[in-house]
Each structure stands twice: as C-alpha cells, then as structure tokens.
Amino acid sequence: MSTIEKVQEDVLVEEQVGTNNEIVLYNDDVNTFDHVIDTLIRVCQHTAEQAEQCAILVHYKGKCTVKTGHYDELRPQCTQLLEAGLSAEII
Predict the structure, then answer these.
(1) GO biological process annotations for this chain's record (predicted)?
(2) pLDDT at res. 16
(3) pTM here?
C-alpha cells in the first residue's frame, strides 16, 4: 500500500511598488510626420519603427503614450518634446 503525500508551499510574490508616469503625445495640425518621428527618435530614444508607429497612432487615435517611467526621468524629455513644438504631457 502506498501513501500520497501533499506538500503545501508558501510562495512570496514581490511586486514592484511605485508609480510609473507616462508621456502622452497628442495630435495637432501643425507638425509633419517626419518632424514627430525625428523628435521621438532624438528625445525618447525610439527606434525608427517605434517612432513611426507612435506617429501613426497619434494621427489616427489622437494620442499615444510614447514613454513610461518615473516623473523625474520623464520631465526633461517632455520638456524637449514641448520645445520641439509637439503637444505632450506627463500623466
């Protein structure tokens, strides 16, 4: 006769605690796709494909999250986007 043994384990799950903010880029009727793409590559270190996809989303959806992170890291990038004439905010 065999016995079946059940084992219960306690597993600790560590969650990252902290708030991530987002830079949201908004559509406008002023900037060209090329300017938006070039700016995202320069300021947010996007690849050409990422920047193009974001520009398309902004154009068709009206807005797109282009970067996430801590507020202190995003603030200078958002400022550079605004100085380049783009419409963006940190949420």
Answers:
(1) protein catabolic process; proteolysis
(2) 59
(3) 0.80
